[in-house]
Amino acid sequence: MEKSTIPILGIVVPCYNEEEVILDTSTTLSDILETLSKQGKISFKSFMGFVDDGSSDKTWSAIEGLQKKSKNIRAIKLARNYGHQNALLSGITTFGEHADVLISIDADLQDDVKAIGEMIEKYREGNEIVYGVRNKRDHDSWFKKNSALVFYKMMSLLGVNIVYNHADFRLTSKRVLEALREYKEENLFLRGIFPGMGFRSAEVYYNRDARKAGHSKYPFIKMLGFAWEGVTSFSIKPLRLVTVMGFVVFGASVVLGAYVVFSAYFLQVVHGWASTVLPIYALGGIQLLALGIIGEYLGKIYQEVKRRPRYLIEKQL
Predict the structure, then answer these.
(1) Distances in whole angstroms, Cα of residue 210 to Cα of each of 218, 266, 309
(2) Domain membership flag for residue 228
(3) Domain annotation covers residue 192
(4) Is 70 found in the same domain as 149?
(5) Alpha carbon distances (Å) from 242 to 237, 286, 287, 293, 298
(6) In whole angstroms, what is the distance from residue 307 CA to residue 298 CA?
(7) Average model confidence (pLDDT) for the chain?
(8) Global pTM?
(9) Radius of gyration (Cα) for the chain, nearest Å?
(10) DSSP code per residue over 193-207
(11) For residue 28, is pLDDT > 60?
């Protein structure tokens, strides 16, 4: 059912050491808000909400300066760096109280802001979640494009419900934000939470642009950690893989045992070091891998039961 009311839009922008781009980001988003409000698609009360995720540069000072000059800027500063997902959650929770619709977007604006208007149209058609999906990644390096492809394929194989080529550029309605408050887990992976909610959704496709300034805050190690966080937060298949490996090794051990007994009674052979050392290496490696995977899940349980706050707000504008 199409929504008839004009929504108040809040654009949530997580920032970490983004002093080089924050002015351009603010100007671009302000222009988008002004254009959409003049077209009658969003309310004139719409705003931008910046989240400083414990930046070590002058990001917060820049945000304070911008906020003094503009009425449509709100901001919070986290007490330390809590990571992208927790920073995004803090912005969604804080600014969601003052908006009918929230759109999250990274400060580098590689995600095309022109898609925001189309997202609003999809929302007014009755969709509660609208995903921004990257159509082309021409400005990404070969490694980044292919590692992203491997990430999405791996998540799909492990049974994680995730939108292909979607990062955290999305629209969420008030209903979705209220439902999100019921998700209390410590280990956040919002890209998996939203598709699993079941609300009516749509997709908007756009071309990914080049970063205007600065450098990516997601190097290979961080990307790898983020992928592992997503897998272990939404799938127990790695644990089941350990069980499968156990059965495979057990079957191989039975076959090898039968061969050893047969050789001892019917063949004149001298067993070398390889037949002794290689199985030890193989079994030792599998055991360590299994313990590592199990330990990862135990660590997550440990984090969950402590129930510590996922973020602390130091300042709010």
Answers:
(1) 15, 70, 35
(2) no
(3) yes
(4) yes
(5) 9, 8, 9, 8, 15
(6) 15
(7) 79
(8) 0.72
(9) 25
(10) HHHHH---EEEEEEE
(11) yes
- 36, 229 in Cβ contact below 8 A? no
Q: What is the pLDDT of residue 104?
A: 92
- Full domain range(s) for residue 258: 237-306
Residue 151: other Cβ atoms inside 10 A: 17
**DSSP bridge pairs for 137:** none
3-state secondary structure of 168: strand
pLDDT of residue 148: 67
Which alpha helices (DSSP H) does 1-79 contain, by range? 22-38, 59-69
Both tokens of 121, joined, read 């149209």
- Per residue, the 3-state secondary structure of 154-184, as one string, reads HHHHCCCCCCCCEEEEEEEEHHHHHHHCCCC
269-301 b/e with 16+ CB inside 10 Å = b? eeeeeeeeeeeeeeeeeeeeebeebeeeeeebe
Angle at the Cα of 195 from the Cα atoms of 220 and 221, rounded to 5 degrees: 10
Is residue 211 located within the same domain as residue 242?
no
The answer to whether the CB of 8 falls within 8 A of the CB of 42 is yes
**Total structural domains within the chain:** 2
Helices and strands counted in the chain (H then E): 10, 8
CB-based burial of residue 14 (10 Å sphere; 0-12 exposed, 13-18 middle, 19+ buried)? Answer: buried
**Chain position carrying tokens 């550029």:** 169
* Residue appearing with tokens 């590689």: 110
Tokens of 215: 């450098």
